[in-house]
Amino acid sequence: MSYSQEIDKLLTAIAAEGGRVTGIGLADDDVVKAAADLGLIDVATGDAWTLVDTVSLTPRQRLEMGLPPIVRKPSIFASAANAIVSLVGRVFGKPSPLR
């Protein structure tokens, strides 16, 4: 079996699991290394404590595999800062002519 077929099977398996797969020793697999070199997946190797590697699809590959994009929510700090700046803008801003 060629690498392209094995990479396709890997991508299909990752997509079936929701876009992320974890396991011990995944980063050492030749197919995973080849897919990472092509930029199809992101590999996060485990540390000495957990030894669990995480393989996830890249944002572009998620869309190609039919998975929804990952939308990051703003942090609490960013939301609070936005509310404060909006309030200051309303209090000290120039009044609109429609009032």
CATH topology: Arc Repressor Mutant, subunit A
Unreliable spans? none
Question: How are the strands of the biggest sheet laid out side by side?
Answer: 1-3-2
**Fourth-tier CATH superfamily name:** Winged helix-like DNA-binding domain superfamily/Winged helix DNA-binding domain
Principal-axes geometry comes out as: elongated
Number of strands: 3
Which structural class best describes the helix and strand composition? Answer: alpha+beta
From the 3D coordinates, which CATH architecture would you assign?
Answer: Orthogonal Bundle
Main beta sheet strand tally, sense and closure = 3 strands, antiparallel
> Radius of gyration, Cα only, in angstroms?
22 Å
**Total separate domains:** 1
Q: Residue-averaged pLDDT, rounded?
A: 87
Descriptive notes:
- With 99 residues, this protein is α+β, with helices and mostly antiparallel strands.
- The chain has a single domain (3-92), classed as Arc Repressor Mutant, subunit A, CATH 1.10.10.10.
- 45% of the residues lie in helices and 15% in strands.
- It has four helices and three strands.
- The protein has helices at 3-16, 30-37, 59-64, 76-92; strands spanning 20-24, 41-44, 52-57.
- It has a three-stranded antiparallel sheet with strand order 1-3-2.
- Helix 1 (3-16) crosses helix 2.
- The mean pLDDT is 87.
Give a concise summary.
By secondary structure, this protein is an alpha+beta fold.
List keywords for this structure.
three-stranded antiparallel beta sheet, elongated, 45% helix, 4 helices, alpha+beta, 99 residues, single chain, Arc Repressor Mutant, subunit A
